[in-house]
Amino acid sequence: MEIIIQKDTSEPLSRRLFAQFSTEVLSLEDVILALSWIIDDEAEGYHRLPFLSAESEGLERLDVYTSIRKRRAERAYVVSNGRNTIYILDYVVKARRVYHDPVLCIVGPEAERIAERTLRNLKRILLPKICDMRINDHALTDFARLIGAKKTDILKEVSEVLEEAEVALKMRLLEGPEEDADGGETPVRGEGRLSRELLEDLKRRRPLLMEQIDIHEILSYGIVILFLVLMLFAALSKLL
User: Fold this and answer.
1) CA–CA separation, 32 vs 34, rounded Å?
2) Which of 34, 124, 134, 195 has the fewest CB atoms within 10 Å, i.e. the most exposed one?
3) Residue 153 neighbours by CB under 8 Å, 6+ apart
4) Quick check: 72 and 94 in contact, CB under 8 A?
5) pLDDT band at residue 187 using 50, 70 and 90 as cut-offs
6) Can you give 17-43 as a three-state secondary structure string?
7) pLDDT attached to residue 210
8) Residue 31's closest CA among 98, 99, 103?
9) DSSP states of 119-174 as a string?
10) DSSP characters for 167-201?
């Protein structure tokens, strides 16, 4: 994944790479959730720019800042409030396997602040994906019977322990929780108007289009198949 920022809209040379890291887990949905803190804030006034797609001429300029091993997929979103413009793009990486790699480009005077907060949110989103702790209901039932306790009481104790473990993990691996105006931790939910609109659009576009078929590969396979068929006919003619 790459996060590109450009503070001065009139100076293309001010564009720079803010963060770059390899990921096979983070998706475009995660990026939208990480941005929800600002794009869903009505006071910020962000809205989605219409009539823009992954093939739009304006978005092609971003290709020179990303790896040549990538080609942009069908999904691209642009949101703006007049001061800052955020490009949310989905690239396809061809490595040992094909996977999607999001690219985020923020243009505007607050680009660095938005990038910093979004990067912290991505860490918070990625952390729970490291280990998925699930309660085995059948084992819980058997354990409750074995010790002669109520299932609900044990479930409450286990839930509290898992909650404490999650908090401890955040304290050790993250810089610290984000706080809102009331002093509480700000959740990364994506329940606002704009992020919900983008997430619903992503769901409508699934399944993703398959990769473009390479005509050269088809011809190669066709020649091999034709050769095998001719060999088979030659062998059969000898038998007959």
Assistant:
1) 5
2) 134
3) none
4) no
5) low
6) EEEECCCCCCCHHHHHHHHHHHHCCCC
7) 40
8) 103
9) HHHHHHHHHHHH------HHHHHHHHHHHT--HHHHHHHHHHHHHHHHHHHHHHHS
10) HHHHHHHSS---B-TTSSBPP----SHHHHHHHHH
The separation between CA 72 and the C-alpha centre of its own chain, rounded to angstroms, equals 14
Tell me the C-alpha to C-alpha distance, in Å, between residue 113 and each of 11, 34, 88, 216, 219.
19, 13, 17, 47, 51
| Of the candidates 186, 35, 47, 183, the residue with the CA atom closest to the CA atom of residue 113 | 35
Distance between CA 236 and CA 239 in Å, rounded? 5
**What rounded mean pLDDT belongs to the chain?**
77
Digit-coded pLDDT (tens) for 63-112: 555 555 556 656 788 899 999 999 898 877 666 666 678 889 899 999 99
Rounded Cα distance, 113 and 117, in Å: 6
One-letter amino acid at 102 equals P
Who's near 28: CB < 8 A, 6+ residues apart? 75, 88, 90, 100, 102, 202
Q: Is the pLDDT of residue 154 over 80?
A: yes
